[in-house]
Each structure stands twice: as C-alpha cells, then as structure tokens.
C-alpha cells in the first residue's frame, strides 16, 4: 500500500483498453506476463464498437505498407509482416465470428462490432489480463520501474505500454495523454491533425453546392501526390464520402484539391458527336455519370462560352480537374483517425519500444502511422499491439 491508495504490482501496465492495448495485453498475457490494462472509460473498446458503422471493418486482406501514412514509410513494414490480416482472420474464425468482404478487401462482421469486442475480452480473460476501467491515470513516473498514479490506486511495473489512441471523437474518451507521456519521457511527437475527415468548403462553394447535401457521385480526388477514386458526398458544410475521407489525410490547410468528375470519360467527344450541340445535350451526357441535380448545377456554374471544339475541350478539362480550395476539415469531432503522433524514429519497428527509455512502448494510433480507409487502421492496431505484446 502507498498511503491509503491501493497498490498494484504487475509485469506490464497497458494504458488504453482499445484495439492496440487489448491485442498487446492478450499476447503478453499468453506469454505468462502479469498484465494490467487501465482505461479512464467506463467500457473497453468504445471505438471498436462504433467502428465500421457498428460492424467493425476489422482488417483488409490486401493490406500493404503503402496503405499507411507516416514520416517514415518503412517503419510499419516489420510489424505488419509479423502480424498479418491472415493472423487476425484466424483469430476471428477461432471465435466463430461470421464476417464478409464488403468491397476492396474490407472485412466486416456480419452481426456487429460487439463480436470483435467479446473476442478480445475473451482472449484477455483467458490470458489472465486484469482490466481497470474508470481509472484515470494522472501521473506516470519512472524510478527503478514505472509508477502510474490514479485517484484511488497506484500501479507499478517495469514495463509501460502507451495505447491511448489518437484525438478523434473526444466525447468517447480520446485524449492527448499518450502524446504528453511521450514528451515527458523526451520522445519527439510529430504535429497531429485530423485524418479520414469530411472537408469544409469555402463560403462561396458552400453557397453554390451545399444544398445538394446527400447527393453522391463516383469521382477521383487528388492532391499533388495522391489520388483516390471512390464515392464523394455533399454535406451541409462541404464534402465527405470515402474519396474525400481518403484524400483528407493528405490535405494540408491552404492547399486545393482536384476532382475528376468523369474519370476515364471523354466528355467533349460525347457532347461533340451530337447533331445539335447544346446545354440539353451536355446535361444528358453529364447525367450519364453524375446524379441529375449535381449535373445540372455544375453545368449551370461552368457553362461553356460556346459549343465549338475549343470550348468543349475547355469544359472537358474542367470536368476532369475541378479545383476546390477547402476552408478546413470538420475536425477531431468527425475524424476517424489522427495523422501524426509519436515519431517512429524514437521506436523500434520490431517491438515498438522506445529507443531512449527501456521498458516504454507505444502502440496503435498514438504512433505516427495512419492507415487509409478500409480496415487498415485496425490492422495497424493489431499488428503493433501484437509486436509489442510478444516482446514484453
Ligand atoms: C467513427 C469511427 C469509425 C472507425 N471505423 C474503423 C473501421 O471500420 N476500420 C478501421 O480499421 N478503423 C476504424 N476506425 C479507426 C480505429 O477505430 C482506430 O484507428 C483504432 O481504434 C485505434 O486503436 P487504438 O487502440 O490505438 O486506440 P483506441 O481504440 O482509440 O483506444 C484508445 C483507448 O485509450 C483510452 N484512453 C485515452 N486516453 C486515456 C487516458 N488518459 N487514460 C486512460 N485511458 C485513455 C481510450 O478510452 C480508449 O479506450 C474508426 C474510427 C472512428 C472514430
């Protein structure tokens, strides 16, 4: 006992009962380590429960290191190779959880994300992991070991794993505690920003397009170095949908995005080959690949000066390269992930242990590794969590 506080001794303390923390705990527990998982939330894995529209897109069978953003694009390779989508699928099948592939290798639960949560809880229980929920750690010190203090308890262990996630969705428990701990122990933290997040349009574009909220179209969206082809959706303040969420992770304030409204189509030729070139013909061509309301609106705002070949070529160019300058993102309240975080140069890519501070590990989203949309972020959580858990 320390004063009137309950004192707990473990082999490893894991801060954060999310995807990465639970995976790490189960792997370490299986290896005979006495593990405590500590979380300030009243329930473990809240983000898992709301993920994938409640069905948890738990991995992607085509997962490659190229599907991740990081200041060091090589860092994730080792962990991703040590714990693959096939490893997680084997676990899901061991627990008889029904699942399906939705699109592009994205695997979802047939029933609900709760299946994944129960599975992780069962794995942790079988491995003897102790769970401390509603426990807010307000201070961590390192003496001969790590000492983590909560209001009514103090935890001691030679190993501390920080699995506190990113900043997105603060109302379900996201906090900056992991980044604070990294800084406290002298580790560099790269600037964070919301990722996989809807974009807010500038005032003029908002007034011109946002009454189309709910309308969606298949487009290709690009920044200077990246491009994604998928659905785009108008919202009340701007743009969302998978194509926009993907590009948002690469977008920086002040930069424009380019939208190809007709990927692979020759719009000029389609209008030009008609007997009578007219707005009605243009509407009919655009209606072949865009929803009617959007096609009409876009053409009204990009009316060709004439119907000759030169003007049609200009219209074609604009259609394939509609340039928009977003004002902002919808922020962490609406973001699925946080880009940036604990600098990977500070960590071992094999074990996620700090190079500077022995026994201190960072796993999951708190690290500067961010996946594309489509099950990649959970795969990183499982892979980094398992790599650390096996090394404890
Ligand atoms: C709406 C939404 C849907 C998503 N859908 C998908 C999807 O379908 N597929 C996919 O791959 N990814 C999805 N993601 C992303 C994915 O959920 C995260 O990347 C993943 O959960 C990160 O795992 P983590 O363990 O690092 O962090 P988290 O799962 O966020 O867990 C962090 C834990 O740490 C706890 N914590 C935070 N601060 C403290 C503190 N100070 N003290 C104690 N505990 C603390 C939190 O309460 C939480 O339990 C989604 C995200 C959101 C927001």
A few lines on this structure:
This protein has 13 helices and 23 strands. It is an alpha+beta fold. The mean pLDDT is 96.
Task: Kindly describe this structure.
With 392 residues, the protein is α+β, with helices and mostly antiparallel strands. Helix content is 31%, strand content 25%. It has 13 helices and 23 strands. A seven-stranded antiparallel beta sheet has the order 19-18-15-16-17-14-20. It has a five-stranded parallel beta sheet with strand order 8-3-2-12-22, with helices on one face. Helix 1 runs parallel beside helix 5 (114-126) and helix 10 packs across helix 11 (292-301). The radius of gyration is 24 Å and the shape is elongated. The model has no long low-confidence stretch (mean pLDDT 96).
Multimer state: single chain
The global form is elongated
Please give the largest β-sheet: 7 strands, antiparallel
Number of β-strand runs: 23
Overall mean pLDDT = 96
Helix content: 25-40%
The chain-level structural class is alpha+beta
Number of H- or I-type helical stretches: 13
Low-pLDDT ranges: none
Rg over CA atoms: 24 Å
């Amino acid at each position: 006992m320390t004063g009137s506080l309950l004192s707990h001794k473990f082999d490893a303390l894991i801060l954060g009962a999310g995807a990465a923390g639970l995976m790490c705990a189960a792997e370490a527990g299986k290896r005979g380590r006495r593990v405590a998982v500590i979380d300030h939330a009243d329930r473990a894995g809240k983000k898992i429960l709301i993920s994938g529209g409640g069905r948890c897109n738990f991995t992607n069978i085509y997962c490659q290191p190229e599907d991740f953003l990081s200041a060091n694009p090589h860092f994730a390779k080792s962990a991703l190779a040590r714990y693959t989508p096939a490893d997680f699928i084997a676990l899901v099948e061991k627990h008889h959880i029904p699942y399906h592939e939705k699109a592009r290798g994205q695997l979802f639960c047939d029933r609900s994300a709760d299946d994944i949560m129960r599975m992780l809880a069962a794995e942790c229980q079988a491995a003897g992991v102790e769970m401390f929920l509603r426990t807010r750690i307000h201070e961590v010190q390192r003496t001969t070991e790590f000492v983590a203090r909560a209001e009514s308890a103090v935890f001691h262990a030679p190993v501390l794993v920080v699995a506190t996630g990113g900043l997105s969705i603060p109302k379900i428990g996201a906090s900056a505690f992991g980044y604070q701990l990294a800084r406290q122990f002298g580790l560099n933290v790269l600037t964070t920003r919301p990722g996989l997040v809807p974009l807010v349009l500038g005032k003029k574009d908002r007034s011109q397009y946002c009454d189309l909220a709910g309308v969606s179209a298949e487009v290709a969206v690009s920044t200077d170095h990246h491009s994604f082809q998928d659905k785009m959706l108008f919202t009340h303040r701007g743009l969302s949908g998978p194509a926009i969420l993907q590009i948002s992770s690469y977008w920086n304030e002040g930069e424009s995005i380019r939208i190809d409204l007709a990927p692979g189509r020759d719009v000029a030729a389609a209008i030009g080959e008609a007997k009578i070139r007219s707005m009605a013909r243009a509407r009919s061509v655009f209606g072949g690949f865009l929803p009617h309301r959007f096609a009409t609106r876009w053409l009204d705002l990009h009316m060709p000066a004439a119907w000759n070949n030169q003007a049609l070529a200009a219209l074609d160019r604009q259609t394939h390269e509609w340039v928009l300058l977003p004002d902002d993102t919808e922020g962490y309240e609406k973001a699925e992930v946080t880009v940036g975080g604990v600098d990977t140069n500070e960590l071992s890519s094999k074990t996620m242990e700090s190079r500077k501070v022995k026994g201190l590990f960072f796993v999951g989203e708190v690290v500067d590794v961010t996946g594309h949309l489509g099950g990649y972020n959970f795969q990183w959580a499982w892979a980094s969590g398992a790599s650390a858990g096996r090394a404890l």
